[in-house]
Write a structure and sequence with these properties.
Blueprint lengths: L6 H16 L5 H35 L1
Helix pairs in contact: 1-2
Length: about 60
C-alpha cells in the first residue's frame, strides 16, 4: 500500500472508480482490478482517518 498517497487523492480515485462502475465502462477483468484497488484505497483512508483522530486526541490531552 502506498503511504505517500494523500487522503484527497485516494478519495478522488475512489470516486473515479465508482463513476466508471456506475456507467458500465469496465469490462469484467478491469472491474475485478478496480474493486481490489478500491478496497486498498478504502483501507488507506480508514488508516489515515484513524491516525489523524489519534493525533488530535493526543494533542487535546496535552493541553
Amino acid at each position: 500500500m502506498e503511504e505517500n498517497v494523500k487522503y484527497e487523492q485516494a478519495v478522488s480515485e475512489l470516486e473515479s472508480i465508482v463513476r466508471k462502475m456506475e456507467s458500465d465502462q469496465l469490462d469484467i477483468d478491469t472491474l475485478a482490478e478496480q474493486l481490489k484497488r478500491a478496497k486498498q484505497l478504502i483501507q488507506l483512508c480508514k488508516d489515515k482517518l484513524t491516525k489523524t483522530d489519534e493525533e488530535i486526541k493526543k494533542i487535546l490531552e496535552e493541553e
